[in-house]
Q: What sequence folds into this?
């Protein structure tokens, strides 16, 4: 298939582009490069553009005879979304609305959407299944849930085939550790700890050490980016025979902040300063996925379930790109 990868120069998007090409599909990347990196892309067609540009989207979809769209172009910082709700609803919801309008105009009906575990808010049930009530507590999660609802009603109207894939914590480096995380500024735990191990950060912060967990720190579900991309590939194939797919994507096994810190120390052979401080408001003690539905219905089997393996791929990438991708 000819697949338009929106946000394809970003962390997950660039890995997805490589996986699509490796599977025999023809990816076309659409990105405004506000967050992504052209250096992360292989030799594939590239369109420099913004999802707010309806006419350019229609032209791109038509010119490249696009069969399906994958969407990785959201803003993802929870704290920033609380400070700037309008910015997040504009980019994450309004621009996706524009993309869906352009798809309808160009006659493209298959859509794979990057959603998030943030749609669940602070659930009472752990591990989290797809049926847990949706109660997002910040503009980031709510903007993603709004897109899911729009897709649901478009599907019911017979105007869209879509898969909503609810990520937990994407991490690691894909394609033999050649495609890694380069957020500026960085906010994800594993690269932050790696930066401390490399001496590029003064210390690692632990926010709360008195949670009701074995070591007192928060537990989260970490999923390797390549496993994430394989689930997208399987969902894309399943859309040939389905109109609406919703799946959690996670390992189902949680790791605490202390465990991640200790694993980075082990993999890197480096020590670094750790500062323990108070809890952050709104941080649940444990968030892990029940991804049994994706495993059963898609035949999805994550390959990188071991935290040490995940961290090793990330450490390799950061060691090879200590300053991130070249601009």
A:
């Amino acid at each position: 298939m000819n697949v338009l990868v929106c946000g394809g120069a970003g962390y997950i998007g660039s890995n997805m582009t490589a996986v699509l090409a490796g599977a025999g599909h023809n990816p076309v990347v659409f990105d405004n490069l506000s967050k992504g990196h052209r250096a992360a892309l292989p030799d594939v067609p590239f369109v420099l553009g913004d999802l707010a540009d309806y006419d350019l989207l229609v032209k791109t979809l038509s010119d490249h005879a696009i069969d399906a769209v994958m969407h990785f172009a959201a803003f993802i910082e929870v704290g920033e979304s609380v400070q700037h709700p309008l910015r997040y609803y504009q980019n994450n919801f309004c621009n996706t609305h524009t993309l869906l309008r352009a798809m309808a105009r160009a006659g493209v009906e298959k859509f794979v959407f990057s959603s998030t575990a943030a749609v669940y808010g602070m659930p009472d049930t752990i591990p989290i299944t797809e049926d847990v009530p949706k109660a997002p507590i910040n503009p980031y999660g709510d903007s993603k849930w709004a897109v899911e609802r729009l897709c649901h009603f478009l599907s019911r109207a017979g105007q869209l085939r879509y898969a909503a894939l609810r990520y937990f914590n994407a991490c690691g480096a894909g394609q033999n550790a050649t495609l890694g995380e380069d957020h500026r500024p960085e906010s994800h735990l594993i690269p932050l700890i790696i930066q401390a191990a490399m001496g590029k950060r003064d210390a690692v912060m632990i926010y709360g050490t008195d949670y009701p967990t074995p070591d007192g720190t928060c537990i989260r579900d970490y999923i390797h980016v390549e496993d994430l991309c394989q689930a997208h590939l399987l969902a894309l194939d399943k859309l040939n025979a389905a109109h609406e797919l919703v799946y959690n994507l996670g390992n189902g096994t949680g790791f605490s902040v202390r465990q991640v810190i200790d694993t980075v120390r082990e993999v890197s052979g480096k020590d670094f300063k750790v500062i323990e401080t108070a809890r952050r408001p709104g941080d649940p003690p444990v968030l892990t996925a029940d991804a049994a539905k994706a495993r059963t219905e898609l035949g999805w089997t994550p390959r990188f379930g071991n935290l040490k393996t995940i961290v090793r791929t990330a450490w390799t990438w950061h060691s090879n790109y200590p300053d991130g991708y070249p601009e």
The mean pLDDT is 96.
